[in-house]
Predict the structure.
Amino acid sequence: MQLPSLFILMLGLALVGASTPEPCNCGEKVSVCSLAAGVPGIPGHHGLPGNEGKPGAKGEQGEQGLRGTQGIPGKAGPSGPKGNQGEKGQKGDSGGSELELLRAQINDLQAQMEVLHGTTSLTQKVILGHIFPHFVSVGLKIFVSKGAEGSYENSKAACSHLGGQMASPRNAEENNALSKIAAKLGKHIYLGMNDMETEGAFLHLNGERMQYSNWAPGEPNSEIEDCIEMYTNGKWNDKICSENRLIVCEL
Ligand code: MAN
Ligand code: CA
């Protein structure tokens, strides 16, 4: 090998050896140190992580997310204006509600009451018939008689003793009912009203002024006749109070 060739070989080896790092804390000056060192050193440790890089470019918008769950109901709003009345609903099914049950029970009770009323009414008539052979029922009033006779005062006392009072018809219906007893027995009946206190002012036994009357033609016609008798035809005549007349009471 010629000398120039040897020189080039030596230089090449020197350059290859220079590329091997050697231990030193040069950091960024590795190439300078390497060139300055004569013998290749042991490889150094990895350096510390570098500073955080700059933020990358903004990514593209992602796809729409899934639908969320339903939220809690909000507060009730203020009440609106009153609406028009709706059409009447259809009749409900029977026996369904508590109201229907009560209605059915009330209907049952009413039916029972009617039966009971009929029974009581019949019982009353049977008992009354035994005590008073002559009686007639009109509205809530019952006229009764045993067929006995007496003066006005006797009659008044007898009826009071029974817990009633002398027959005192207050309307045509009651007067007609009472007249049936008079007609049946063919006897006149003293009524409860009189004008003993003031002539011409007939009063009921409780002091009320008489409203209804059924005077016979020309009656009343006497100042001394302070009582009233009913004829068998139901017409009235003012009469002295001391005669004997059929005693009829109202209960
Ligand atoms: C006649 C009529 C009656 C009167 C009686 C008295 O019948 O004058 O008005 O009350 O007599 O007995
Ligand atoms: Ca008279």
Notes: The domain at 122-250 is CATH 3.10.100.10 (Mannose-Binding Protein A; Chain A). Residues 219, 221-222, 225, 237-239 surround alpha-D-mannopyranose (ligand 1) (CB under 6 Å).
